[in-house]
## 1
Amino acid sequence: MTSAPAFDQQIPASASPEVEFISLSHLNPSTELDPVPTRGIDLEYFRTYVRSLEEGGFDYTLLPYGSTTADSFVVASAVGQLTERIKPIVALRPNTTFPLVGAQKLATLDQLTEGRAVVHLISGGSDAEQARQGDYLPKDRRYARTSEYIDLLRRAWTEPAPFSHEGEFYKFDDFGPGFAPHDKPIPISIGGQSDEAFRVGGEKADIFSFWGEPLDDLRAEVERVHGIARAAGRTTLPRIWVTFRPIIAKTDELAWRKAHEYVARIADTFGKAAHGDRRARQGAPQNVGSQRALSFAERAELYDRALWTRTAAVTNAAGASTALVGSPETVAAAILDYVDRGADLVSIRGYDTLADAVDYGRYVLPLVRQELAHRRATGRRGTLQAEHPGNYGEDYRRFATAGRA
Ligand SMILES: Cc1cc2nc3c(=O)[nH]c(=O)nc-3n(C[C@H](O)[C@H](O)[C@H](O)COP(=O)(O)O)c2cc1C
């Protein structure tokens, strides 16, 4: 049991008043639990998946990008046409697309979705992966390029007259006015945890994203990125996105049984390197986000109310991998702990991807939203966090250790 904070009625000053939910769109039924040897798009599955997100009340879906994945722009466009409300977030690596072309593609997506496009800029966490598509810049230069890229995206969307540019990475003459977004500039998000990611994100991004970290660490990082934004003279601070892989069941005890069964299967999948890109999972990761996840996993398995790091440890923290384990109430309360520290975009994606998306929509999202509605209506915290203590309570750690292999 970790020392329990007081969950009195006072809403913390750092709490976000609202939260929006993100998922990640899967293109076929392959999961880390049950890898299916295909790289392809299963259209029926994909349709069902994105419609489940929309019906479940998710607000956004991330379309990830890698050198061997489907193209995130094309998939985002399909999401836009298969749904009415959910916002596609295109993961975009600047090295793959000239900034004015990126701006044009995003503005096209934004018009096709009547204002729903979001872009998540990936500067690249692995030199080897970047080299696969001809990008040989070291990481600090890649972030400098991302910074110039952001300026050019915004100018391409808003400049009313043609303009020329000669910067460190890009040069062009007499461009524009560019194809404009639906009605307002498209939100720009930054993924990455290195010092360079903080600098670019703090100075310029609309959204700054994290993988799931212990609460105190996350809060320190939120203050850091907001401090950089304030020092840059910004009055609108970057929104905070935090990502988890929840494992839920009817009770905390059942969720822990599931978690132990899952981690054995995930470890088996990664051990055999049968799932995904084997090369990406070898050796120490170069991206700071994965390094941080592994160091949390080394320090402890369980943090705060429900954060579990074994799933990161067995996957070399390749991608978002930290879990929240418990009943829907415990996991919703854990999400609220992060909302209390300033997160206002929460990404949850399970290991049993489609079934979990449906379950989160039914059982987790409404609890979080209900609590925030209660806070708005009364100015006071509700009882969910006090009544579902998870690891702050008596039995939870026993369940957590009971099923350990
Ligand atoms: C929420 C989130 C989503 C991400 N999505 C992708 C992705 O789709 N493709 C990718 O190559 N990297 C992705 N990343 C990884 C990092 O953005 C990438 O490793 C970063 O550019 C460099 O990492 P560093 O600054 O932490 O060292 C994502 C990171 C976060 C936090």
## 2
Amino acid sequence: MNIITPTADGSNTLYNETIGEHYHSKHGALQESKHVFIDAGLKFASAKQAEISILEVGFGTGLNFILSFEYCEANKINLNYTSIEAFPLTSEVIEQTAYSAYVPESIWFDFINNYPNALTVPQKLTPLSTLEIPHTTLAEYETDQKFDIIYYDAFSIQHQPEMWSDEIIAHACSFLKPGGTFVTYAITGKLKRAVKACGFTIEKLPGAPGKREMLRAVKGM
Ligand SMILES: C[S@@+](CC[C@H](N)C(=O)[O-])C[C@H]1O[C@@H](n2cnc3c(N)ncnc32)[C@H](O)[C@@H]1O
């Protein structure tokens, strides 16, 4: 059961009763998504690029997606967004988040109208943007495609330690192109060692409100 809960910046999140965790930071869902994934990830990796492919781990409510979609449309960047989700939410629950308030109406409707089909077949939302949400676990996910960015947005190591093992991090990183960018809201010694072992250069960046630091890592060429 997921319960809609307000966060400190006024945006909502969901509280997952089974896992015992929120989908986003309780210090601000919108702020966290913008800070970690859009500013430190997408803006960093897409500078001077006309095309970007993103692999997200954990689609959840789609907040990271709608902000990325809006940014790419506004900047005429071709977006190919794939987001692995083991437990997809219903469209009704996603609509209850009220995230439609944070993007133009056309962006919201292109997303929400295509969401159910994106869970089974890649959907072309606009001439520039495609969304695909493989309904599977990260461990079972396989593709020949290589991505420019990974948004690693799994539940925390305290609540879902299997999503932070060295093996699963290496599996996720194997889908990134050389020179590609891995971003996540978390940073631990174990995570830094796991990412470095995959040949990445790591950077500690200031975290979103409520977190001192976050991790950005770039894959060796
Ligand atoms: C922190 S939430 C993601 C929040 C999301 N990015 C958003 O903007 O709403 C973690 C997500 O990972 C999903 N998840 C849990 N176990 C998973 C697994 N083994 N593989 C892929 N996704 C998983 C959960 O269902 C949840 O949607």
